[in-house]
Specification:
The complex is a heterodimer.
Chain A lengths: L16 E8 L2 E10 L10 H8 L5 E12 L1 H17 L2 E5 L3 H16 L11 H34 L7 H11 L4 H25 L6 H39 L2 H7 L4 H38 L5 H11 L2 H27 L5 H33 L2
Chain B lengths: L21 E10 L2 E11 L4 E6 L5 H8 L7 E6 L2 E2 L5 H8 L2 E4 L11 H12 L4 H14 L15 H12 L6 E5 L7 H18 L2 E5 L3 H7 L2 E6 L4 E5 L2 H7 L3 H7 L3 H10 L2
Parallel strand pairs in B: 3-8, 3-9, 6-7, 7-8
Antiparallel strand pairs in B: 1-2, 1-4, 4-5, 9-10
Helix pairs in contact in B: 3-4, 3-5, 4-5, 6-7
The chains are: A alpha/beta, B alpha/beta.
Chain lengths: ~400, ~280
């Protein structure tokens, strides 16, 4: 934290002082002396309340500043409080020897307050109001989400009919950003998840001499769901956050409004290429994550369980069915759609401030990950019902 | 009857040996390897409302950044109260900077803090006032700029003009010796710009602060400026210096007169060329 200013006394100046005396039974004289500066620790403006409490019968106040030295806001705050309290009690205040500048500023503060005064809205709400307003907010947020999904759907229909307006070069750029540039992080995370799965399985399976089934465990686990989930979570943190920040910043800079006034749909121009890029790249990244996960398991199988790599890979291939692969790819496509939509939605909902962009980004990641987990549960239950 | 003990000399008083509050000597400024401003020299005297004027992109704000300690000049020196600012170590520079109040172009209020919290932060950092006293001072500053009752609002809930006024109130929070204002009236309607100029003039007169204003708004320049420099955007040098009203009457430099007359010389020149 910053250092405090040097007190006036240390700088060789006279410290601000205050004395109160009765001139007659009805008149109070408040004498101000010395330097009244914030740095010099002058008498607090809160003393004013004590003075009024100690002298409830005062009918007039004289503020004497003849022996006043330098001054700043601390004096103004003190004088302002005297005037406020005196006004509340209908007491006359007379100033003597006070700096002209302080009088002018006090007058300005009074007149400016009269010009425009906004009454503070009570920010604290009772329990019922809070529950009510939160519920209304939730319903409104849900409606906005569905409206947005609808707009994205309409934009996709327009894309299919060749009417959607967006720059093809943007789509290429987003494909590169969400696909090729994400490969290193997807490789690392997926391989490590495959490795962890293999280790966890090996501990149990080795006890039965069934360590070869580590290949089945890792293969099915990664390909059916884990590859897609890991790729989805990476995309939510990496790409979904980036989409929210990009579009949020555009909201702050009124770029989205500029598109609207130009008659260009922001959903088509900004959202469509981003969501499309994720929908295209996510299934591919999922397949890539599956392969990396299997390779991670292979490392454990070969180096820790002493399995032959050919045997391990054959076991993996035998364990996998085309249906399992398609389910994984389907997961990936759904996750891509969800991460893209929520990233863009949070960006579009961003308020026009720097903190709004931060909130939108965080919210995009959290919502994206929650959506991924919920979607996984729904797909898993669906597959179970369908018997696949 | 009354006396004025405010910071700096009261308006109209004559100090026999006034020392400049800011001295800029042979400063070059630029970005990367390219030089934007060359050999800039001027002095700001206590109680001045000093205008740094020039066209868009002429480097006014860049120069301001050197004055307020945000960007080191490529060459030359900036002296605050006789102390070579950029020769000091960072803690010393920070100590000098506490005497500055800066209003940035967009207000630069911290968006996650309420108006009250924005103004209270510098007071919490650099004074030993209690919370109640800080709130009292903040309310006073807000009253001075006409924002009474807006304490609990966030910057995003304020209009552009209000944000500027709140920014000014924050710049005044620690009663600075020097107030730096970057394009204070840009984006304001004429009436609010006029009120803002009046406020700056009144604060200078009452508190005796010195004000450095970066602007190209002619109305503001003539309304409040007591001294000025004109930065030529093409050469990056100071081509005129003095009271803006006097420059308007006496400057022989075409660019300066053209700027101060809002391009009227250029128009006359073009009309003269037409067959």
């Amino acid at each position: 934290m910053g250092s405090k200013k040097t007190p006036a006394a240390a700088q060789g100046r006279e410290i601000g002082q205050l004395s109160v005396e009765r001139l007659d039974p009805a008149t109070l004289c408040i004498k101000l002396a010395g330097d009244w500066r914030l740095a010099g620790d002058p008498p607090s403006s809160l003393h004013v309340d004590t003075i009024f409490q100690d002298n409830p019968d005062a009918k007039a106040i004289i503020v004497d500043g003849h022996t006043l030295g330098g001054w700043d806001s601390s004096l103004l705050a003190f004088l302002r409080r005297i005037h406020q309290r005196a006004s509340e009690k209908g007491i006359q205040v007379q100033s003597e020897g006070l700096p002209e500048g302080s009088q002018r500023l006090l007058e300005r503060a009074r007149s400016a307050s009269k010009q425009i005064t906004l009454q503070n809205q009570p920010r604290r709400q009772d329990f019922l109001t809070t529950v009510g307003s939160r519920t209304v907010g939730l319903v409104s947020s849900a409606r906005e989400t569905f409206e947005f999904i609808g707009e994205v759907f309409v934009a996709m229909v327009r894309l299919c009919s060749g009417k959607a307006t967006f720059r093809k070069v943007d789509l290429g750029l987003f494909l590169q950003q969400t696909g090729a540039q994400a490969l290193p992080i997807v490789s690392l995370i997926s391989a490590l998840v495959g490795l962890i799965l293999a280790f966890v399985g090996a501990v149990q399976l080795r006890a039965f001499g069934a360590q070869i089934y580590v290949a089945d465990l890792v293969g099915i686990g990664m390909v059916r769901v884990m590859g897609a989930i890991m790729a989805g979570i990476i995309m939510a943190g990496r790409t979904g956050a980036s989409y929210a920040a990009q579009i949020g910043t555009m909201q702050v800079n009124e770029e989205v409004d500029a598109l609207r006034t130009l008659g260009v749909s922001p959903v088509e121009f900004l959202v469509l290429p981003r969501v499309l890029a994720l929908m295209i790249m996510m299934p591919l990244l999922t397949v890539y994550a599956d392969i990396m996960g299997v390779l991670g398991g292979l490392i454990v199988g070969v180096l820790v369980l002493d399995l032959n790599p050919i045997v391990y890979l054959n076991e993996t291939i035998q364990a996998l069915t085309l249906t399992t692969v398609w389910i994984g790819v389907f997961h990936g496509a759904v996750f891509g759609l969800l991460v893209g939509i929520f990233g863009c939605l949070k960006g579009m909902q961003c308020s026009r401030s720097a903190s709004g962009v931060g909130y939108a980004t965080t919210s995009a990641v959290v919502t994206g990950i929650v959506a991924i987990i919920v979607a996984t549960a729904i797909i898993t239950i669906g597959c179970n019902i369908l018997g696949i | 009857m009354s006396q004025d003990n405010s910071i700096g000399p009261a308006p109209g008083t004559v100090n026999p040996t006034p020392l400049p509050l800011i001295e800029v000597r042979g400063v070059d400024m630029g970005y990367g390897g390219s030089v934007l401003l060359r050999e800039i020299s001027f002095e700001v005297m206590p109680g001045d409302i000093f205008i740094i004027m020039g066209g868009s992109g002429s480097g006014k704000s860049t120069l301001l950044r050197a004055l307020i300690g945000l960007k080191r000049p490529m060459k030359g020196s900036v002296l605050h109260k006789g102390v070579n600012f950029w020769d000091q170590e960072l803690p010393e520079r920070e100590k000098i900077m506490r005497d500055f109040g800066v209003l940035y172009q967009g207000g630069a209020l911290w968006s996650s803090l309420t108006v009250l919290e924005n103004l209270a932060l510098p007071l919490e950092q650099y004074t030993s006032l209690s919370r109640d006293e800080i709130v009292e001072i903040v309310r006073l500053k807000l009253a001075l700029v006409g924002l009474t009752g807006f304490e609990e609002l966030y910057p995003s809930e304020l209009s552009g003009g209000m944000r500027k006024r709140a920014g000014l109130a924050r710049a005044l929070a620690l009663d600075p010796d020097i107030l730096f204002l970057d394009e204070p009236t840009s984006g304001l309607d004429p009436l609010n710009a006029h009120r803002f100029d009046n406020l700056v003039g009144e604060l200078r007169d009452s508190l005796g602060s010195t004000v450095v204003v970066v602007t190209h708004e002619l109305a503001s320049i003539f309304a409040i400026g007591t001294n000025s420099i004109y930065i030529d955007g093409e050469t990056g040098t100071v081509t005129a210096q003095g009271d803006p009203k006097r420059l308007l009457k006496e400057s022989t430099d075409f660019t300066v007169r053209n700027f101060l007359t809002r391009g009227s010389l250029e128009d006359a020149d073009n009309e003269g060329r037409q067959p």
